[in-house]
Write a structure and sequence with these properties.
mainly beta; 5-stranded mixed sheet; 22-stranded antiparallel beta barrel; 7 helices
């Protein structure tokens, strides 16, 4: 797609609503001020009061009829953020904010992900999101940029997913059934209710899919439960999430020739080696918020376990994990010398304990006479142990933040966070060791209220991102223990922006930023390494970008969208004799545009979604790239045939025009296996049945 065409289209329809709509069928646009934002490490009454880029959305209200299959459905229309669906059930979607996270080989990197304030992100910076339940999401809050340093080990931003309020009836229940292309089936059962301040919600879902690509079958059961109590003094909740995925096949990435031949192919080596994963995870969290005099005290604690059986092309990885953590935060408003302050102080601790074992992958191994030392029993997948180590990661952080209000028009915000992270690698006396990683991350921002509904801001912030335990343990030399040459990456961001609401429900936000990164973490493969990912530090990189979002409601028509311009380049980066200064950072399109339109009629709601993206370079040398693309999704949601019965029918199509495209890339992969195809056209149908028991009047 022509780059100029994207820019012109963005001016016309780049839209991103910031409102929290209580009723999906309400055709009016709610005002911005009632939205309560938690992602700024303190409650505010409006995103207009925050001196950094933040977006708040209610996904199902803006775009009804979602199947809740993947984060790319939920995290839509957020400028600066992109979700690359790899169409690989063995690997999570790749989330990036301002380019941070695009390097991820699996899971999410460089971004803090939370659910109701409880972190999904582990203390080493890795975030598995395969156990994240999307059925009960009521609101998504996204902070973009280094101002997220108040949350610790994250350079790109924060995604805080908030649970919807329980139904305001004593008892309610719902069943949702989905059936679609490529053997996709999903059955969901939900229950919830509220009475006298107490509320409860629970849901369980069974998802099965044969996958768009060969060798991409998935079988998954996940659940969510929440019990809450709210009164005038505060709110308290107990929350559980869990998943059991016995089958999630890994089709791997393709070469360009393989993609051009048949995008549904799987990597032959992945099939021969039986690459896949089986995972179970359970997490229990307790949160509380209590008002004391004029101040607010908030606390949270969580514990969880995870087991992973992960045959890969180079090894069979077996991980048993326990994780726990907690945080405490207090916010106190006060006045001093005629100036109003809002002071926040907090501290948090996270612990991660992994027992990691790697085995030789003996699938497709030669005869025992050749492989007696590594695969002594023919036909047994797990051969000899190649790694057996305990990885203990801790993270302790404390922060302070003060918002100084000068006459209710100008606000100065200053914050700082100190972090002390530590990785202890215990294998044997020769390989054991520890690696402390410390950082101080300050931020200062100024916000000007141009009017009651418009504001402008500027900030300077810094952040750090440590290598994960896996990245520190994967040494190119093949040695065990910790890679002591790999350093954390550190970034400094300068940002200005405007946001507000105008006449006729128009909403807008725009940000201009420049980020300099030292020691950026870069992935690479080694030829003959079987696809194993290693990491090294680049000297310096530069990120300069523009983010635009608008939102509007015209009678029964709602429009939304987001435009991102990303000029991300290496400034100083040399590998052996190759010099990459001036090259584009791979894995990130230069321009992207997302747009949506929802037309609500008497009989049905028509929802359309479109995304346009530039090409992406796939390696540091910029010698290859994936082509740009544009796709359109559409669906019709109707309850007219069963008006008043609680039944709703959805008929939709993903990739309506059957475009062949590459949705994700594996950066710096060996053997040219860079490309992860996007799904071609898929038709689906869904039926929802809802029942509620209301109290007598």
């Amino acid at each position: 797609m022509n780059s100029n065409a994207i820019g012109v289209a963005a001016v016309m329809i780049s839209l991103a609503p910031l409102v929290n709509r209580a009723d999906a069928q309400d055709t009016t646009v709610a005002k911005l001020e009632p939205v309560v934002v938690e992602v700024g490490r303190g409650a505010h009454t409006s995103p207009l009061e925050l001196p950094f880029a933040v977006t708040v959305q209610t996904p199902d209200s803006l775009r009804p009829g979602q199947r809740h299959l993947s984060l790319d459905e939920t995290l839509w229309l957020i400028p600066g953020l992109s979700v690359s669906n790899r169409n690989n059930p063995s690997q999570d979607p790749r989330i990036s904010i301002r380019g941070f996270g695009a390097r991820s080989a699996f899971g999410v990197r460089g971004i803090r992900v939370l659910r109701d304030g409880i972190p999904f992100t582990l203390p080493d910076g890795q975030t598995p999101v395969d156990y994240l339940d999307l059925e009960s999401v009521g609101r998504v809050e996204v902070m973009r940029g280094s101002a997220s340093s108040l949350y610790g080990n994250a350079g790109g931003g924060v995604v805080d997913i908030r649970t919807s309020d329980p139904p305001q009836v004593p008892v309610s229940g719902a069943v949702r059934m989905w059936n679609g292309g490529f053997g996709s089936r999903r059955l969901v059962a939900k229950a919830g209710g509220a009475s006298a301040g107490f509320g409860y919600q629970a849901n369980v879902a069974r998802t099965e899919s044969d996958g768009y690509r060969d060798y991409s079958r998935q079988r998954m059961t996940n659940g969510f439960g929440r019990i809450s109590y709210d009164n005038v003094e505060g709110s308290y909740a107990l929350e559980w999430l869990g998943v059991n995925t016995p089958v999630a096949e890994n089709p791997g990435a393709l070469t360009r020739a393989q993609f051009d031949s048949d995008p549904r192919l799987a990597d032959p080596l992945s099939i021969r080696k039986g690459a896949r994963k089986a995972v179970t995870q359970s997490q229990l969290g307790l949160t509380g918020r209590h008002t004391i005099a004029r101040g607010v005290v908030e606390a949270a604690a969580y514990v969880g376990t995870r087991t992973l059986d992960n045959p890969l092309t180079f090894a069979v990885v077996d991980v048993g994990r326990t994780m726990s953590g907690g945080n405490l935060r207090a916010t106190l408003p006060f006045s001093m010398l005629g100036v109003d302050h809002r002071f926040t102080a907090g501290t948090e601790l996270q612990l991660q304990n992994d027992l990691r074992r790697n085995f030789t992958n003996c699938n497709d191994a030669p005869a025992p006479t050749v492989s007696t030392t590594t695969c002594p029993v023919l036909g047994v997948e797990r051969g000899t142990v190649t790694l057996n180590q305990r990885e203990i990661v801790s993270s302790f952080g404390s922060y302070v933040r003060d918002e100084v209000d000068f006459g209710r028009r100008y606000t100065l915000t200053a914050s700082a966070r100190t972090d002390a992270d530590k990785l202890i690698n215990a294998t044997n006396p020769d390989d054991s060791g520890e690696r402390p990683l410390d950082a101080v991350s300050p931020m200062v921002g100024v916000l000007a209220r141009l009017s009651d509904s418009h504001s402008a801001y500027a900030n300077i912030s810094s952040a750090f991102e440590t290598p994960t335990a896996t990245e520190l343990g994967n040494q190119p030399s093949g040695a065990a223990g910790i890679n002591r040459d790999l350093k954390p990456q550190r970034s400094t961001t300068y940002e200005v922006g405007v946001k507000g609401i105008g006449a006729s429900g128009l909403q807008y936000n725009a940000a201009l930023f420049a980020t300099g990164v030292h020691d950026e973490l870069i992935p690479f493969d080694i030829p003959g390494g079987g696809g194993r990912r290693y990491f090294r530090n680049a000297g310096r990189t530069s990120r300069r970008g523009i983010e635009l979002g608008l939102g509007a409601a015209i009678s029964r028509l709602e429009l939304g969208g987001a435009y991102t311009y990303a000029n991300y380049r290496f400034v100083d980066f040399t590998v052996d004799t190759a010099h990459y200064a001036g090259n584009r950072i791979p894995g990130i399109p230069r321009q992207t545009l997302q747009a949506s339109a929802s037309l609500r009629g008497a009989l049905a709601t028509l929802v359309t979604e479109a995304i346009f993206a530039d090409r992406m370079f796939v390696n540091d040398a910029n010698s290859e790239s994936s082509p740009g693309y544009g796709i359109l999704n559409a669906r019709v949601v109707s309850s007219a045939l069963w008006n008043g019965s609680g039944a709703e029918l959805t008929l939709g199509a993903q990739n309506l025009f059957n475009t062949r495209y590459i949705s994700s890339v594996s950066v710096n992969a060996a053997g040219g296996k860079f490309y992860e195809p996007g799904t071609q056209r898929s038709i689906y149908i869904g039926l929802s049945l809802l029942a509620a028991l209301r109290p007598p009047r």
